[in-house]
């Protein structure tokens, strides 16, 4: 496997060190270790997004979602099933993975997790991007030579 040295990128950029860090982290990840659980990222509106994880066999009590410092962390910890004396079952083949996991997603600026739901073995995490009014683009009128120049009050 090839390794990529991004050190020159850190030296030649000013203010883009976060981008270089993200590229460095992506290059160093082991893809096989991050394959469980599978997930989709969907755009559901102009500023709305959804992350859907396949978490078959997990209940709401087994899952935790935390948003902190621009990162969304979804953890699942499956406790060992309690043996039910009325329904003794010997599992001959276990194909449904119910192992513990931790998935981390880097969130863009101004993206917030609004809620989550668990339905039919799929965990849906709703995200919305709320840009503050001060950062939204605004149109500035151009005054002609005969008109008085007006200042914009924020």
Strands of the widest sheet, in order across it, are: 1-2-7-6
The whole-angstrom Rg is: 24 Å
Give the H and E element order: HHEEEEEEE
Strand content: 25-35%
CATH topology of the largest domain: Immunoglobulin-like
Instruction: Name the overall outline.
Output: elongated
CATH architecture level-2 label of the largest domain: Sandwich
Core attributes:
154 residues; mainly beta; Immunoglobulin-like; 4-stranded antiparallel beta sheet; 3-stranded antiparallel beta sheet; 2 helices; 12% helix; elongated
Structural notes for this entry:
The chain has 154 residues and is mainly β. It has two domains: 1-30, no CATH class; 34-81 and 92-144, Immunoglobulin-like (Sandwich). Helices cover 12% and strands 31% of the residues. The protein is built from two helices and seven strands, in the order ααβββββββ. It has helices spanning 7-12, 17-28; strands spanning 39-43, 48-54, 63-68, 71-76, 101-106, 111-119, 122-129. The strands form two sheets. It has a four-stranded antiparallel beta sheet with strand order 1-2-7-6, with no helix packed on it. Strands 3-4-5 form a three-stranded antiparallel beta sheet, with no helix packed on it. A hairpin with a 2-residue loop joins β3 and β4 (71-76). The protein is elongated, with a radius of gyration of 24 Å.
